[in-house]
Amino acid sequence: MPEIAGPSPVETMNETTNPKLVRALDQAFAEPDQPPYRHTSAVVVLKDGRVIAERYAPGYGVDTPILGYSATKSVISALIGILVRQGKLAVNDPAPVAAWQNPGDPRHAITIDHLLRHTTGLAMGSSLNASLGSAIAPVNRMKYVARDMAAFAESADLESSPGSAWNYHDGNYVILSRLIRDAAGGHAADVLRFARQELFGPLGMRNVTLEFDATGTPEGSSQILASARDWVRFGALYLDDGIVGGKRILPEGWVNYSAAPTSDAWVGYGAGFWTNRGDSYGATYRTAHGWPAESFYASGTFGQYVVIVPSERLVIARFGTSGNRYDIEGVSRLVADVLAATDRNGRLAVGN
């Protein structure tokens, strides 16, 4: 992927930008007079392959790795897509999980698509709950107690038939991470080599850290760190149907598959990405607050966002530790403000 910016942060106040874009970043970093605070740490705006604006809080810079939390799931989805392109996995086939291979096991019906969309039916609890009771949910025992996280998730019983209900939990993406590990060669080093060769390297992502459990399986539900620029590089992969620098990274049609809404996902969820396509409650809320209906995004707890708007050739990355509903209103304003500051031809809008 061509360079998206020089070594220093791109200044928003120069001859190539305008006051609207400056104000958009000012608003993104502005704090209310009282809690809950937003604690924005980084914003990077990429338009037509170039960073047109970025800003960092003290202690952050262009190379600072930032934990994506559940934005990690979108990277795992991309790695699964690469394996599909290579013919090593098929989304609608039963997932090649050893513990589920008995045709008499009802979990044998779980597909890669079910795992990507959180419709497996596995009784793991929810990763959207943050109550005291949720601390003892199976999904949290998996994350904080289990040595072999994927084996723990794979051993769960079904609470609903595969494909019949949506339940977002981290176990689905830990299982997908084990499938990546096994397809790559079986060890953590194999996963790193595969990810760097097939994804991070072609995209120019240079400041990425993957965390693993004790068995060498990546903790693919929440534990990838990357610089804000690397996160927008990842988002840019989804602007041209998975082609970067003339090289196809993702299978043809994988981008639209990733953004296609999952039935009954009231928040608006696709196959590894949150989506504003369809008529879910979440999509309706976000589009009413300025998000384009075609847009979709990677998201992590506390306010990590990588927003992708293909028709505008636009990626907006915002990171922080926000307690106010993950600053969804502020990020919605940022998206709307950036769109207002740019036109469809990739140029910066003029005027005040």
Mean pLDDT: 93
Sheet with the most strands? 6 strands, antiparallel
User: Which structural category do the helix and sheet elements fall into?
Assistant: alpha+beta
Estimated share of beta-strand residues = 5-15%
Helicity, in percent? 25-40%
> What would the principal axes of the Cα set say about the shape?
globular
Instruction: Count structural domains.
Output: 2
Query: Distance between termini?
Result: 33 Å
List the helices and strands and how they pair.
Blueprint: H1 19-29, E1 40-47, E2 50-56, E3 66-67, H2 72-85, H3 112-117, H4 138-144, H5 149-154, H6 171-184, H7 188-203, E4 208-210, E5 224-226, H8 228-236, E6 243-244, E7 247-248, H9 254-259, E8 274-275, H10 281-288, E9 296-300, E10 304-309, E11 314-320, H11 328-341
Antiparallel strand pairs: 1-2, 1-11, 3-5, 4-5, 6-7, 8-9, 9-10, 10-11
Structural summary, described in words:
This protein has about 350 residues and is of the alpha+beta class. The protein has two domains: about 20-65 and about 225-340, 3-Layer(aba) Sandwich (Beta-lactamase), CATH 3.40.710; about 70-185, 3-Layer(aba) Sandwich (Beta-lactamase), CATH 3.40.710.10. About 30% of the residues lie in helices and about 15% in strands. The protein is built from eleven helices and eleven strands. The strands form three sheets. It has a six-stranded antiparallel beta sheet with strand order 2-1-11-10-9-8, with helices on both faces. A three-stranded antiparallel beta sheet has the order 3-5-4. A hairpin with a 2-residue loop joins strand 6 (about 245) and strand 7 (about 245-250). The longest helix is centred in the middle third of the chain and has 16 residues, at about 190-205.
